[in-house]
Amino acid sequence: MDVLSSVLGGSLGVIIPFLAVLTVVVFFHELGHFLVARWCGVKVLAFSVGFGPELLGRNDKHGTRWKVCAIPLGGYVKFSGDENAASVPDRDEQAKMDEEMRRTAFFAKNPWQRSAIVAAGPIANFILAILIFAGMFGFLGKFETLPRVDQVRPGSAAEMAGILPGDLILSIDGNPVESFNDVQRVVTASAGVPMQVDVERGDAVERLTATPELQEISDGFGNTQKVGILGIQRNTSQEDIIVKRFGPVEAVGEGVKETWYILDRTLGYIGDLFLGKEDPDQLGGPIRIAQISGQVATHGILPLINLTAVLSISIGLLNLMPVPMLDGGHLLYYIIEIVRGKPLSEKLQDFGFRIGITLVLLLMVFATWNDLRSIIGS
Question: Is 278 a catalytic residue?
Answer without folding.
Answer: no
